[in-house]
Amino acid sequence: MSALVPTTAPGPAGQAAPPRALTGRLGPVAIVFMVVAAAAPLTVVGGAAPLGILLGNGVGFPALYAVSGVILLLFSVGLAAMTRVVPRPGAFFSFVGYGLGRRSGLAAAYLALLTYTTIQVSVYGYVGFILSGTFASLGLPVLPWWLWALGVVAVVGVLGYRHIDLSSKVLGALLVGEVGIVLAVVAGVLLTGGAEGLSAAPFEPSTVLSGSPAIGLMFAIAAFIGFEATAIFRDEARDPERTIPRATYAAVIGIAVFYTLASWGLVMAWGPSHVLDVVAADPGGMIVATTATYLGTAGEVIVQVLLVTSMFACVLSFHNVITRYQHTMSNAGLLPAAVGSVHPRHLSPHTSSFVQTATAAVLVGVFALLGLDPVLQVFTWFAGVATLAIAILMAVTSLAVIVWFRRTRVDSRRWNTLVAPTLGLLGLAAAAVAIVANFPLLVGDVDAAGAQRFGAVSAVLLGLVALFPLVGWVQAAILRRRRPESYARITEAIG
């Protein structure tokens, strides 16, 4: 990678002011690695896919990854079209602002921060739990989950502070390991013919529509969280008008194909007639048991290690996304000016990275003081919040794309600017409705019989999804009235 030069502005007394614009030469492959790593492929295959099979439409669940891929590919068509005409790195913040106005853009920015912060902290809870149990099983001193989580926060903070190229290399290496072990398991299933022979049963219409496909779609859509963040790396991309759309399409298609194939492999590994019994007995251990069956003890050990690195890659990737959102918002005058600075040597949003590291550490500490369970509460609750928030964000972004291109007519391609975004909007709106309807189940808010209920937990978490965009909307209104110069900087950031 060639040398990078930060953008600076003249400072007082002829001195250069600290740089505030991110620069770089990331190609589509590097960006794909970062956003696909955020989706945590192995964690999804090992955790979300079994739950989708168990609580969703059973054997037909693999088809819902393909359906989700189609919906999100339609969404990506509009996203790519917007990327070509909106030269801003704010992603949802910028696109919604261009299409629906600055207040809506700022509301989207705060909802995006909630999305990525909650998904990140949920995974910190899970990885802390896994590390605590793993090291205890090796006879080492038993340490609480939150101490392990804080250790991971520190490592992520160090990598996030440095140049993005370092993170992309780490994420690329970890992603290759994740994908490799899953493909090895699928290959083992293919070579042996699975438990009951190979078939297309998961894709038969009657199977796909069995059980609760709406709940299944909820889990499938959640597995894609992260791919949409390609646009946030615009300033650090080489030839962004081409790199960002290519990376977006590649990420969606790659994730959809991988998840569909991997979940089909899980079903075939145990057989359509027995897979529900297996997943009901131990959904969290299904991927480990499957790997042990088809790859032996060595494969079992490898997949356990890679499950931890998968979650680490996830939090590192989301850390990079959040820091860039904060950096963009700071340069728009919405967060303290220091958050928008760029390190003169590492060329990273180092202050924003430090702020995000501190935020994650404080949240982990608060959850520890409250005595929350790292899996049943921290992971389950906040992953549920992120799932609903991202569906709403993408639906609103699709609407913004449609409105922007209908108003400006800067792109005459109807498929790219109207048809595909409209179809994506309908699919995402349906997914958001399904998530709200089944939200208690998603966050574990159930009664003694296991039936979902809209109790206090659901009310508080749904309240967060409503509160954060409201804060952004109100801030925009206040800035317009009391600090017009700051409001003008929003204009510079999102048009």
UniProtKB/TrEMBL annotation:
InterPro entries in UniProt: AA-permease/SLC12A_dom, APC_superfamily
GO cellular component: membrane
A matching Pfam family: AA_permease
Keywords: Membrane, Transmembrane, Transmembrane helix
Domain of life: Bacteria
Protein's UniProt name: APC family permease
Species: Xylanimonas allomyrinae
PANTHER family with a match to the protein in the record: AMINO ACID PERMEASE, AMINO ACID TRANSPORTER-RELATED
Topology versus the membrane: Multi-pass membrane protein
Domain Amino acid permease/ SLC12A, chain residue ranges per copy: 57-483
TM region(s), chain numbering: 29-51, 63-86, 107-131, 143-161, 173-194, 214-235, 247-270, 301-322, 354-372, 378-405, 417-442, 454-479
Location of this chain's protein in the cell: Membrane
Principal place of residence: membrane
GO biological process terms, semicolon-separated: transmembrane transport
